[in-house]
Design goal:
heterotrimer, A alpha/beta, B mainly alpha, C alpha/beta, A: alpha/beta, eleven-stranded mixed sheet, three-stranded mixed sheet, about 20% strand, globular, C: alpha/beta, six-stranded mixed sheet, three-stranded antiparallel sheet, about 25% strand
Chain lengths: ~400, ~90, ~270
């Protein structure tokens, strides 16, 4: 069985550009959710989000004419490739898997609204519409970074980023490639904000996953990529290894277009299948980076599923979304990086804004401050609308 | 505002916002139950109830907090229309 | 890689049900129409009252595939069936509709994941799901990925489902497209099972056959490779390698079925549509 290791990490997050500020922010427990500046939120129930700071955007190398999502993805993927020290020749045989949802929607929306309001003034052949497809990211990254292997765009709602890592690992295990750049990206979009607003799923205050008084999620934006590699190939070229992706699993609820299965059936199966693929018992896992959105329903059902797999209090859990919001298609990838960093630094990033843990969440959710813990095996969970469940198991 | 008037407005919402067949809405009475899983009900799920509550807020100017447990009020056309009348200060 | 057999294939397009309805020349048949629409399928109105057309046609294409297989829906239900959904643009209309008329019941349908979710709910599919965004290249990669899932025994069967819907965004396509082929709405689903032949995925476009398929079908983005598979079902196993090519986003890919006991059509009923 081919072993898959992680040899490169790259992140652009609401903390700024790079893995360093990402880990500094997470480990300090700094909540990056602030008033929204990118879109008009007049009349929305929440007017806050975790945006990439303007200064960080300015520092990005990619042209400002590119879609915001492309710029974020380019910077994060470039950092991951540089971190893994993948040569130009090696890149030519490297696959690319991008988890994305919004694509160039932020720009396309702006064009569309201008067109609706002032039809005469917008361009007849809008560039913005051409980059609306989320698959544009993969085309841009493939071309700019010289990635010559298969290029795929995986759009699995809020589980996209995690699904892209699972698919990248599949490509390596199937022998298609020995190396894959995999991750996720999403820039803030108005449509996303409108959608979660109308579903009454946005907390007017920064989100409070697992808190008894939680009122919903906060939206964020980010890009996160990793370099996945056949362990033998990584060893042969003397690459530094951040950790191992021991096992992955994807399941479907077949229950409802938005609501998770009430007993978390699909979540439980995903976690158990990922552990089986990793050949590990639940008791071997010391930390779970939860999906932890902060909505009433997700957190309760996820906690129930975790209890079924790990037993009450059987594992430390925390929510990255409490710190940088729900970064949509980037979330699963950013949380995978957070999980790897937690293993590496022997420090579990906290769940922010957690005052009183919901009695239905019988776990130590690492409130307020990061917790030193020498965990060997950790899991990262991502669940999406439509009942898609992805679990990733990592080892130090 | 009478209960009959509220009932008619809800029927309109059921067609225009929840996309039910107008004939199905026309057959609804005060006895019609709403939630999916209840025998003989209209079969509304969580997504429908969110849309319904937004539409009721818009139409009747009532405020429905997301934290409220309104399962009993949203059980049937009778309970729902009474709830609206109470919230809108007509009862 | 072991080549999967195509046990059945369901196809619906703006030209009518089945591949038998395809014209010889799509441009001529379109007679200047920029979009050849599928309309709405006849499905239980109340169950699907919120669903957008991409979801409805996704469900209908799986139904057409079951019909082609002569199988009942129980045959695909459960965790041993993987679903791979591919589309380039089927969720465009739902996004536009939501932007213009935001409503809680519409938002979930702006996600491409809504269509495979409705399929999973309708047919009880609880196995692995993957969703690729892209054109024909992604569909060929989906088949390749399916072969990997089958080879690794992750599942017993894989449904590769592709849907494209254009009508509601026809004016936007008119602004950005310069191609002469009509946009033809389509939905196809292939039922793949483990075979014993060989499957190869190569860079580049290998076959002249692709242009023939395009000429007949029109522009269907991700659906085209499934039409190509279906049209070659008369090519029986052992007749030599079968190649299906696609171009998308600057990539060119060809999938080659080879080997004596595999091949497209090996698992299909003769002459069925």
């Amino acid at each position: 069985m081919t072993r898959v290791v992680v040899t490169g990490l790259g992140v652009v997050s609401p903390y700024g550009v790079g893995v360093k500020p990402f880990w500094a922010g997470l480990s300090a427990g700094t909540c990056a959710i602030r008033p929204v500046t990118l879109i008009d939120t007049e009349g929305f129930r929440a007017r806050i989000a975790a945006e990439i700071p303007a200064g960080a955007m300015t520092s990005l190398a990619a042209s400002r004419r590119r879609a915001r999502g492309d710029r974020l993805a380019l910077a994060a993927a470039r950092e991951a490739i540089a971190d893994a020290e993948v040569s130009r020749a090696e890149r030519a045989a490297t696959a690319l898997v991008v988890g994305a949802v919004g694509g160039g929607m932020l720009e396309a929306e702006a064009w569309y609204w201008a067109q609706v309001r002032e039809p005469g003034r917008s361009s007849p052949r809008p560039r913005a519409l051409l980059s609306i497809l989320p698959s544009t990211h993969a085309e841009t990254l493939g071309w700019r970074l010289g990635l010559g292997g298969p290029k795929e765009t995986v759009v699995m709602a809020c589980a996209s980023g995690a699904a892209s890592l699972a698919l990248g690992a599949d490509l390596i295990r199937a022998g298609v490639v020995s190396r894959a750049v995999a991750g996720g990206v999403d820039a803030l979009t108005r449509i996303c904000f409108m959608g979660f607003n109308v579903l009454k799923l946005l907390d007017p205050e920064p989100c409070r996953p697992f808190d008894v008084g939680r009122r919903g999620m906060s939206i964020g934006e980010a890009a996160a990529f990793v370099v996945l590699e056949d362990a033998a190939a990584a060893r042969a070229r003397g690459a530094r290894v951040h950790g191992e992706l021991l096992g992955t699993a994807v399941t479907t609820d077949a229950h409802h277009v938005t609501a998770p299965h009430p007993e978390g059936e699909g979540m439980v199966r995903a976690m158990r299948l990922a552990l089986a693929a990793a050949r590990r018992e639940p008791s071997a896992v010391g930390y779970v980076n939860a999906h932890g959105t902060g909505t009433a329903q997700n957190d309760r059902i996820e906690a129930g599923a975790l209890r079924r797999v790990f037993g009450e209090g059987g594992v430390l859990i925390s929510s990255t979304k409490s710190l940088i919001g729900h970064t949509m298609a980037a979330a699963g990838a950013a949380e995978a990086v957070a999980t790897l960093l937690a293993l590496q630094h022997e420090l579990i990033p906290p769940t922010a804004n957690l005052a009183a843990v919901d009695p239905e969440v019988p776990f130590d959710c690492v409130p307020a401050a990061a917790r030193p813990a020498a965990v060997e095996i950790a899991m990262s969970n991502s669940f999406g609308f439509g009942g898609q469940n992805v679990s990733l198991v990592f080892a130090r | 505002m009478t209960q009959k008037e509220v009932l008619d407005e809800i029927k309109t919402i059921v067609v225009e916002r929840l996309r039910f067949d107008p004939r199905r809405a026309a057959d609804m009475t005060l006895d019609t139950t709403l939630p999916k899983g209840v025998e003989g009900s209209l079969g509304l799920d969580s997504l429908d109830f969110i849309e319904l509550s937004v539409a009721l807020e818009e139409r009747f100017g009532v405020v429905i907090e997301e934290g409220e447990d309104l399962a009993d009020d949203f059980l049937s056309m009778d309970t729902l229309s009474r709830f609206i009348l109470t919230r809108a200060g007509h009862a | 890689m072991n080549a999967p057999i195509v046990r059945a294939l369901g196809w619906r397009s703006g030209w009518g049900p089945g591949l038998g309805a395809l014209p010889e020349d799509a441009r001529r048949a379109a007679a200047g129409r920029p979009v050849v629409s599928l309309g709405r399928p006849a499905l239980d109105e109340e169950r699907f009252r919120r669903a957008t057309r991409d979801c409805l046609w996704a469900v209908a294409a799986v139904g057409a595939m079951l019909e082609d297989a002569g199988a009942r829906r129980e045959a695909i239900a459960g965790a041993r069936t993987a679903l791979i959904y591919v589309t380039a643009a089927a969720y465009g209309p739902s996004n536009r509709a939501f932007i213009e008329r935001p409503g809680a019941v519409y938002f979930p349908y702006t996600a491409p994941a809504a269509a495979p979710a409705e399929v999973a709910i309708e047919y009880g599919l609880t196995g692995p799901l993957t969703i690729f965004i892209g054109g024909g290249v992604s569909t060929l990669r989906a088949i390749w990925h399916a072969a990997g899932l089958l080879a690794g025994a992750t599942c017993d069967r894989v449904l590769v489902l592709a849907v494209e819907i254009f009508d509601e965004c026809a004016d936007l396509y008119a602004r950005v497209r310069s191609g002469e082929d009509p946009l033809v709405e389509a939905a196809g689903c292939a039922w793949l099972e483990r075979g014993t032949g060989t499957l190869a995925l190569e860079e580049g476009v290998a076959t002249a056959g692709r242009d023939d398929v395009r000429r007949r079908v029109g522009e269907t983005f991700s659906c085209e490779p499934l039409a190509a598979l279906g049209l070659r079902r008369s090519v029986v196993a052992g007749a030599g390698p079968i190649a299906v090519s696609a171009r998308w986003g600057g990539e060119e890919v060809t999938l080659i079925w080879g080997g004596p006991t595999s091949g497209v059509g090996a698992g299909m009923r003769e002459g069925s549509e």
